[in-house]
Specification:
four-stranded antiparallel sheet; about 130 residues; minor pseudopilin epsh fold
Length: about 130
């Protein structure tokens, strides 16, 4: 007497059919993860500013940030901006306690898109906003 085969699983054909449908849908649906070069650059600048602030606090020495039109110098590291992006020329520094010397806003532009880096007194952190 043969044992009855269980029927509570999926066949190989059903699994392949589901994989085919998922792969077709993943190709046809547009990618929504695209970010603008300007936003990625602003995030990078923000992260580097926080790094310089932490470096000033840890090493107990002043660290400087110099903004030029096409590059930014973070203490000892030079960050080259993409060719289509330019920022206001200015300088600032974090003292040995990690505090910024003065609060200010720095404007960066790419065509019609403009972002503002905001350096706050008190909290000492930097953030960016789209204008």
């Amino acid at each position: 007497m043969d044992k009855p085969r269980p029927t509570n699983g999926f066949t190989m054909l059903e699994c392949l059919l589901v994989l085919l449908i998922i792969s077709i849908l993943s190709i046809s649906i547009p990618k929504m993860t695209y970010k603008d070069t300007m936003e990625i650059t602003m995030k990078n600048i923000t992260n580097l500013c926080v790094y310089v602030q932490e470096k000033a606090f840890i090493h107990k020495k002043d660290t400087y940030i110099h903004f030029n039109e096409d590059f930014i110098v973070f203490d000892d590291y030079e960050y080259v901006l993409p060719s289509s992006i330019s920022c206001d020329m200015t300088s600032l520094y974090f003292n040995e306690k990690g505090n910024i010397n003065h609060g200010q806003s720095i404007h960066c532009h790419k065509g019609n898109t403009s972002y503002k880096l905001i350096f706050q007194l008190g909290s000492g952190r930097v953030r960016y906003e789209k204008e």
